[in-house]
């Protein structure tokens, strides 16, 4: 793992020592190379994990997420190039440094063996994200958004710290590979419920769960494009990853604790999809759709069947790429018209047809069109939810329909129809933007061929 | 006993209050401090906008989808229709920027307030018809429109003409305006106080013409628009940040198209300004629209090209006089416009009248200030008035004021719609004296152009900016 972490750390001096006309190029290319270095990890030849050292390991759950993280850094740098144009050189370098720092923490989080190390880095990722949102965000509301983001996540994860320290003292070790064997199912005492809650709450806030999701639309809308991308693609998945790891050691006799969260997720999934239908702000629509998709992941993880774990993992990777792609598309709109309102920039198909092709593909993957990996994830989750409770198929079915509705609504409003007069002299698509969209879509489309690599540990 | 105790306490409280006020205001100071602290805490809590360094509540927001430059009746009308026609509700953020919240120099408040359909241009007739309909139904329109007492006196507008404009009559009938023509004898019969010397024909609006209180309309629109969520800001637009791109027309000529990204709004009496990022700018600045257009770079180019075509709107000063005449015409007095260009209307119920006259090109007053020239009344207006209405030979001018026309020097008709080169600036200005009466309809037209890409209710494509470059004058014959 050091062969990934050390080069990522060295990206920082690379950024600061580059000449002004080479900063973006250097950081993009070298981060792409690092993601290539990550690829051999995908070669998981046993059901167990690849134990690289005392501190780091990678198994078939953490590898796809790790791959997603390292893939996303060059994409974030490409996406930020335009709006950082007018800033001073030192600010640009600082921005890239924040992204790289975030990357380092995320890599270490996903490959951590000890749960305490996972926790420390989980919290550490908040700091660069907060700096990116509040310093480089768009409007005055970003301060509000930063506060919501920081305090929701912090408040949720403090109980986690207590629970982890307690488990360390009782079980003796918090090594992820060991705890699944060390933890024994005991007779249920009510303190176990509290422990369950303490473990799960941090990740629920991060996912986010429907009742605790208030920070997400704010943070996503106010963040600059790189902030939105990393938030949607990876930070949300930290919650899912954490839940998947922790459930291995939790006491199965307290599984009844999951019922309130199942209800919240089922209901919240339909609610947030419906909110999307009435949104006028493009970024806000994509943010709420993230909540809806993540609710599916929460439900899948809570019912703990092999199929649902496979679905959760696939959905996390697929949603990461799709959501990030949609944010990039929305940002390309925003850079041209300086407004996030959907109805003010309509009929783009006549003016930017290639961008429409990307919009179409992004929308199709967002609404889980077969045979995309989004569908695999959703389908596995739906099927396992049906076997858990027959009734849930109604709500899941409604959600799938509403997802299709709002995605197509977004596509048709921005692309079709008569174009508004004031957009007919917007700048044509840059090659950089087309590259960005293609780099998002290529993994999405290629993974259709071998989805086994993103199906996680239960395959 | 309980009540007695309460009464005692209340009494003591009163005494205590009396003592403190006598001592000179130490208590009010404390409550002010407390409310200030409360305000600070409230702004720092999540849910409120918070700037850690200083108070920015007087500044406009950093981002707004549409910025309307000019808060007079045209700007407010555009804001109202934008909010009314947007689907879904609350989609667009609109900001109205006006230099002067007291509207001391705005043409709206200083206007005489007449409304008529007797124009020669079909578009003008349609605009006025729509506006009259809007004004008539203003109180039953959307729920919660604050009661606007407009005082729409559906009295009649009589235009006394010296030659017959049959074209006018036909187009008026076609558009549905109810106008009838009267011969001098019929005119004498109907209004015995008129001297019909030199009159060939009179046209007399039967319905939908008259006058109303423009200040009421302005305040009503302002309150309604605020309730719909439009933000107001007092400030002056000093700069537009634009970006330009060179494009080629289909015939191979190169043009530079511009896009406005930001509007710099400068605060009153200070150097502080706020760059407002916007997608669209609507120029409804009235008499000063020409200056605003120049800020956006309209007219900077070699003359004779599209880039070099300025917005030909400039302020022209017009005087309005208020006089009292005890023997003057009574309650049935219409808004009368004479052959010589002088006009007057009844104001109130005490034999007071308001009127004036547009000066000829040679005697245009200097628009630098709003000082009234009383000699103008003596020399130019009174003789015509006295000739037409003999009772006006003895009148007493009570007061007078001056206001600006946003005068379109090209053809005295309004400019509506987008600019061909500065792509996201829309105009709603230049109506040269009939802007107030056409404001509701023009607002709707501009809102449709913004939201739907074309004019839908009334087709105003002949009033677009491009006519200045192409030289196609859209002339209106009945100008007051």
UniProtKB/TrEMBL annotation, chain A:
Residue ranges annotated for the NADH:quinone oxidoreductase/Mrp antiporter transmembrane domain, each copy included: 112-403
Subcellular location: Mitochondrion membrane
Cellular compartments per GO CC: mitochondrial membrane
Catalytic activity reported: a ubiquinone + NADH + 5 H(+)(in) = a ubiquinol + NAD(+) + 4 H(+)(out)
This protein's UniProt keywords: Electron transport, Membrane, Mitochondrion, NAD, Respiratory chain, Translocase, Transmembrane, Transmembrane helix, Transport, Ubiquinone
Main location: mitochondrion
EC number: 7.1.1.2
Domain NADH:ubiquinone oxidoreductase chain 4 N-terminal: 1-109
Enzyme class: translocase
Membrane topology of the entry: Multi-pass membrane protein
Molecular functions (GO terms): NADH dehydrogenase (ubiquinone) activity; NADH dehydrogenase activity; ubiquinone binding
Membrane-spanning intervals of the chain: 21-42, 62-82, 94-110, 116-133, 145-167, 187-205, 225-244, 256-277, 284-303, 309-330, 351-369, 389-412, 433-449
Pfam families for this protein: Oxidored_q5_N, Proton_antipo_M
Single GO biological process annotation from the record: electron transport coupled proton transport
Domain of life per record: Eukaryota
InterPro entries xref list: NADH4_N, NADH_Q_OxRdtase_chainM/4, NADH_UbQ_OxRdtase, ND/Mrp_TM
Summary of the function given for this chain in its UniProt record: Core subunit of the mitochondrial membrane respiratory chain NADH dehydrogenase (Complex I) which catalyzes electron transfer from NADH through the respiratory chain, using ubiquinone as an electron acceptor. Essential for the catalytic activity and assembly of complex I.
Homology family: Belongs to the complex I subunit 4 family.
Protein name, UniProt field: NADH-ubiquinone oxidoreductase chain 4
The species this protein was found in: Myotis davidii
